[in-house]
Amino acid sequence: MFGVNICRVSGVSMQPRIPAGSFVLCMGALRTKLKPGAIYLFEHPRFGQLIKTLSNVDSAGNLWFKGENNHSVSMQEMGPIRQNRVIGKVTWVISA
């Protein structure tokens, strides 16, 4: 499945890397291995759609995401995310 999503970032959790109010282009069709340090759009069961940086992939294949500043939900509070919840990789940022 191939998809392109354009999303507007609300909140400051990804600043300074992605300023609040910016638009991001997310490319779907994740056929390659997810890379720590890259930014992804994913569906969280509690928080809805989030844009966060992939911190690591644990031995069970769970993805652990983090925000870029202290105003983000913590990795522990977000918990592990399964790969099938990833919508796409952020490939382009239009800063506000």
Helix content: under 10%
- What share of the residues does DSSP label as strand, in percent? 35-45%
Sequence of secondary-structure elements: EEEEEHE
**Low-confidence runs of at least 5 consecutive residues:** none
Kindly report the average pLDDT value: 91
Give a structural overview:
The chain has 96 residues and is mainly beta. It has one helix at residues 75-78; strands at residues 4-8, 23-27, 39-44, 48-57, 63-66, 86-94. The protein has a six-stranded antiparallel sheet, with no helix packed on it. The longest helix is centred in the last third of the chain and has 4 residues, at 75-78. The radius of gyration is 12 Å and the shape is globular. The model has no long low-confidence stretch (mean pLDDT 91).
Layout of strands and helices, then pairs:
Elements (H helix, E strand, L loop, with lengths): L3 E5 L14 E5 L11 E6 L3 E10 L5 E4 L8 H4 L7 E9 L2
Antiparallel strand pairs: 1-2, 2-6, 3-4, 3-6, 4-5
Quick tags:
S24/S26 family peptidase, Peptidase_S24_S26A/B/C, globular, 96 residues, mainly beta, LexA/Signal_pep-like_sf
Sum this structure up briefly.
The protein is mostly beta strands and 96 residues long.
